[in-house]
Structures are given as structure tokens and as C-alpha cells.
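User: I'll paste a sequence; please echo it back and then give the predicted structure.

Assistant: Echoing your sequence first, then the prediction.
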Amino acid sequence: MKLPIYLYGHPVLRKVSEPITAVDDQLKSLLENMFETMYNSDGIGLAAPQIGINKRIVVIDGSVLAEDFPECADSKMAILNPEIEILDGEEVSRGEGCLSLPGIAEDVKRVEHLRLRWQDENLEHHEREFSGFMARIIQHECDHLDGKVFIDHISAARKLFIKRKLSNIVEGKTRVEYPAKYAPRR
């Protein structure tokens, strides 16, 4: 089932998500729906808060980027209860966008090398190092679980520059090609 993506300004995007503690049919169905929603929206990652659920769940599939970023090949994965450990290396600035912030792309500095500890859809534990653009995708999506969006990493001057675009999203004036849930009217 294609689920609506919650857009910038919706309070659910600013809440810290709760851990997953049990596996059931509802969780498996949710993961299937999250992948379908991500693919339907032409995304490469989706966090549960982006569909209105404050649970520590992320789905990723950056395979479409493999030609330019080989580290993204065969990258389809469900990540539950992730923990990121930043490894050595300087921060690199690259462009990012987000399904919850349509029409906005900004350069964001992030580390290029990390260790990820997570659980899969069966709550089995995993640990692996990621580099390059794959590390960026993971950091971007995991930020959502802590109530952050990528523009939280840009300068105040850049935020002023995109203020009108942000206001248009909050006011429901930005249209998207996928089902969306706008911020509630005040």
C-alpha cells in the first residue's frame, strides 16, 4: 500500500522515535508498505516518521545510484533501531534532497565513513561499516528518527534563502507527485 509522505512542518517529523521491541505481522506489513511508498515516490530512503509513525525504522535502496556510487549497489535493506558510530575522516559536502521537503536541495556536510549497528526485520543484530554516498543515505534517514531533517545541517543564511520554499510547503502550496500529508492548519 502506498502511504502518504508527511511534509515539512508536520509535527511528527520533529519527534524522537521509539525503538522496535517485537516482530509481528503488522511490522512486516509496514516494512512492505514503506518500500512500496519509497519506490512509488522515487526515493532511495524512507524513515517511519515520514509516514507518520514515530518508530525507529528506516528502509533504504540506493541501487539506482550504483553507476555513480558503486557502494550503493545491492543496498536494499530494512534498518530497525539503528546506532551510528562516526569513524575517522573529514566531513564532505554533497547535495541532498528529501521526500518530506519537496523542491529543496542543499549541500550538507556529513562524514563519509561510519559503523552502523542495527536490527533487521527479524530483530537479528548486524554491524557493518559504510562509506561514501551509502553512509550519507544512512545518516540522512537516521536523522529523521531523532526528529531532524537535512536542512538542520545548513547555515542560517541558507535557511533564509529557502525560507519562502519552506513556507510554501508548510502552507500546503507545494504540490508533489506522490500522496502527501501536509502540516495541520493552525
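The longest strand covers residues 77-86. The helical segments are 25-40, 132-145, 156-161, 163-170.
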